[in-house]
Amino acid sequence: MFLNFANPLLLFGLTAISVPIVIHLLNRRKFERVAWAAMRFLRISVEQNQRRMRIEDILLLILRCLLITLLALALAQPVLRAASSMFTQARSTAVIVLDNSYSMTQTDGVQSRFDGAKKAAGEVIRSMPVGSSVAVLLGSDKVAPLIPEPTYDLSLAGRQIQDAPLFDRTTNLFPAVKAAFDVLAGRPAVRKEVYIITDGQAAGWRQLNEIKALLETHKREVRTHLLIVANAEQRNLGITALRLEGGLCPVNVALHLEVRVRNYGKLEARDVNVAIAVDTDPPMDQASISVIPGGEERSVSLFAKLRSDGHHTITAKIDADHLPADDARSVALRAVKEVKVLLIDGDSGREPRESEVFFLKAALQPVPRAERDDYFIKVVTRNPTELDAIRFEDFDAVISANVTDFGPAALAQLANYVRTGGALWVFPGDNINVNFYNEQLYKRFHLLPVALGQTRGDAASQEKLFNLQDRNHDHAIASLWRDPASGTLSSARFFKAFDLVEEKAKASGAPSAELGPRTSAPRVVLRFQDNQPAMIEQDVGQGRIVVFASTADTAWNDLGARAGIFVPLVHRTLGHLVARQDEHLTVAVGQPFVHISPVELMGKDALITKAARRYAGKEQGDELHESRRIEMLNGIPTLQFSQTDYAGAYDIKVGDAAHIRFAAQSNPEESSLETLTGEQSKLLAETAHVVNWQPGTPLRDELEEGRIGTPLWYPLALAALILAALETFLAHWFSKSK
Fold first, then answer.
1. Cα–Cα dist 133/156, whole Å
2. Which candidate, 336, 349, 350, places its Cα nearest to that of 402?
3. Which of 7-21, 209-223, 418-432, 555-569 has the lowest mean pLDDT?
4. Can you count the helices (H) and strands (E) in the chain?
5. Domain-embedded: residue 706
């Protein structure tokens, strides 16, 4: 270790030490000898006093010289440096971690937090000594190396930071901080530094303890700086959800969409305007939410029509505020001219009303008979003996009602249909072979989400009945009945039903040779009042299956006769089943987009585009233009695109084929206004240099102080103050003694 002085010229102040010495010498007592007879009696006493006074004067002289020395050293601002850096002129190797998550789009009305962070990064680079090197990592919920290895071209690093992209991803700084230390690991640099530049949003520090442990581990060899570049924000409204109610998207039919808006501030927000638009068209519908209390969420219903078949995006917007990233939200849909449904009638009866699918047909086409040919849902009915001549791939959904069993050919075709994106809805009844359903449909082919247990109730006796629950409607199909105005599910009476054995299904995760592994766990749609499942769904392969515990006709219940409940239940279930085919069109930001393409497009290039965003009055990033080739994946022509770092609508064009549109949605958690608490900041300050920085505030001096070494001027000044007090006290004490 050795000392370095920030102001070495001030060391000339040490010459002032001579001043008290000169004064001491000039003021030495000179005695004139006078012959006085009585004096001889005091000689011994005087000689003793002279020795004591000489010691006192020397002690005061030493204190005064030491006081002047400490003052001179303190003014010269000495710092303690490692001996290994004596000849390096404080050159450093640094890694800058720049937070580029979407909370950094927050503005003060003039510039975004990300702009401020880039200015802070520029200050860091300009403060670095000549000969230093720097790497730059962008940190959100992924680490994006902007400059992966330290470069000595600091000007280039500064330019690249100014052009750095701002993502719509969430924040998790731990991976980026860990990557920064990994970059520095093993490097022979004398001084190593990590700069974390962020807005201090609490969500980005969800792994605070892990980050703290990481800083603690490396604090001996790496100095870490945490630069927080944001003021606390008090207001923010954000769209947290945009959802299509019902799931079906017919052309030129009004679609019901629910938009949910959250107030992330503490003060209530009034007259919140919400609008929706299709593709790039002007807004099609709008409404206003009168009041949203602080910390709460409200929803509004809006309607839109898709004028043509094919892929579309619908975007909901609210009035712009200081966090523009959550002021819009998009969903991608595929409009269809018709939905084809195959009904497999397990018992056609002697007259139409006795058919197992009578009420299903009426519910699927709830229009007068004369209008059914023009209705968008097209229904085809077949009995089990006709299935070998049917192509399941020609239908959007297949509904099986009280079918005894399936032949080998039909069963294999049905399994392949579901695996590649088909939809299956199963209703049991008295005719079914329970052993076949459990062994073949459930265990072997995974065409049931659960096993069928024992039946309960007596269809012949309508005195003992049970009902559906009127609560816990959390599933998308059942969410309609959260609103009492939509009717009461418990009004339907059930006399007999199968037990749907959930536990067996959850325990069965083994892949099937015919269909492969189940894609998701079973999800309960409806329950009876005794909490037993009444309806369960599950994703299998690219498809989706649903099983109902009772019949589709009125043999075991009167649900089919209650049109006010049965019709919306059938339509919402059909929409949920069919929506599985298009769920991939809306992804979370950062999630890869995977699309199965027609065989004729195999090997062709797809052009993916996305319009540039506009935050704080200016565009953030260029318009996206990327190309991807459609390639064979697991025997299926597939288009994959992983650069979904930005929220909003994307457009895909492949040759002369119709446009494909998909949308990426950001995580609403990133809209939170919660920041690091004072306690958390103190915790980080134990192992890092924490700076709350504002543009225009000097940063260079503070960074250079840490880079030079440990400053000693403060303890020196404190020691000088103590010496001055001691000298004053002793001088007063000695004078009294004299």
1. 11
2. 349
3. 7-21
4. 14, 35
5. no
